[in-house]
Amino acid sequence: MEYIGNIIRPPSESRSMIIQVTVGCSHNMCTFCGTYKGVDFRLKDIDVIKRDIDEASGCGFPFERAFLADGDVLSIPASVLIDIISHIKKRNPGIQKVSLYGNTKSILKKDVSELKELAGAGLTGLYHGIESGNEEVLRRIKKGALPRHMIRAAAKVIDAGITLSQTVLLGIGGAELSSRHAADTGKILGEMSPHFASALTVMVLPGTGLHEDFIKGKFVLPDKFQLINELKILIENMEVRRDCYFTSNHASNYLPIKARLPGEKEKALALIHSVIKSGNEGLLKPEYLRAL
Ligand code: SF4
Question: Which helix (H) or strand (E) holds 87?
Fold first, then answer.
């Protein structure tokens, strides 16, 4: 397999066939992200991609899912994506799910008809990192999209029949915008009502713009209980229109929550409330176990 640089994938794709289709991220500007720093975004050679698919297909593992890496594979032409997905499915009849990352701009650049065509070819899932629903936070972190764009993008994916998984980032508003970030993020998740939503917690990585701001004192990390409070405010404000499986069980989080919303909202909030009320740090994940 030809894997170039850092390969990231969502936790739910741990048993997937990972095929690197692009190198890097088409945006590569988010202040908190160091994954692809210094890497120019490009589509890999189609023959190399197909050779990797053939190699992974022959390894004997009974793959049921495939994930197309790296950041923002959706930005490549639909015809190329369809060719890749068709090759995966031809070589692996057992693969039922094919997913990728897509950012807001790339989703908006594709017509719903193109997204439907991709769904018809076998694209079943799209991971969309929105980080926040607060406009000021999104500007500060240079996300490259505002809430109104994200809402339009989410609607297109869902209209096309593709399962939408969105991720948000607790703490990314800093201590200053903590409550507004949490409330607006809950509201936008409710408005978009993705099939899956997961909260990660920001970690300040050396080499990133966020780290520079942190050193200069321009970005102050919320403390552990402020972060748990963000989780509470977010869920309180998340009024979904369809079933949504919400999780905060990523390794970066202090408190893992799994809840099917809207049904398990009150149960999740009661648990978070009891942890906040206890003030007991022993109930939170120890710092040394946190990771991105
Ligand atoms: S967070 Fe995602 S969109 Fe932003 S730079 Fe990193 S990989 Fe690219």
Answer: helix 78-91
Domain of 168, CATH number, reads 3.20.20.70
Q: Rounded to the nearest whole angstrom, what is the distance from the C-alpha of residue 89 to the centroid of ligand 1?
A: 28
Pocket test for ligand 1, best of 20, 27, 31 (most atoms within 8 A of CB): 27
What tens digit of pLDDT does each residue of 181-234 get?
A: 999 999 999 999 999 999 999 999 999 999 999 999 999 999 999 999 999 999
Instruction: Give a yes or no: residue 146 inside a domain.
Output: yes
Q: Is 128 in the pocket of ligand 1 (CB under 6 A)?
A: no
Specify the pairing of strand 258-261 against strand 123-131.
Answer: unpaired
**Predicted TM-score (pTM) of this structure:** 0.95
Q: Residue 292: inside a domain, yes or no? A: no
Residue 160 in any domain: the answer is yes
Which residue from 35, 73, 128 has its CB within 8 A of the most atoms of ligand 1, so it is best to mutate?
35
Looking at the chain, which runs of residues are DSSP E strands?
Answer: 17-20, 22-23, 42-43, 65-69, 97-101, 123-131, 163-170, 196-201, 244-247, 258-261
- Local structure of residue 8 (DSSP, 8 states): -
CB 97 within 8 A of CB 127: no
The owner of tokens 């979904």 is 240
Report yes or no on 286 lying in a domain: no
95 CB-near residues (< 8 Å, 6+ apart):
17, 63, 64, 65, 66, 88, 89
Tally of domains in the chain: 1
Range of the domain at 211: 12-279
Atom of ligand 1 nearest to the CA of 129: 2
Phi, psi of 56, deg, nearest 5: -65, -35
Q: Whose CA is nearest to atom 6 of ligand 1?
A: 33
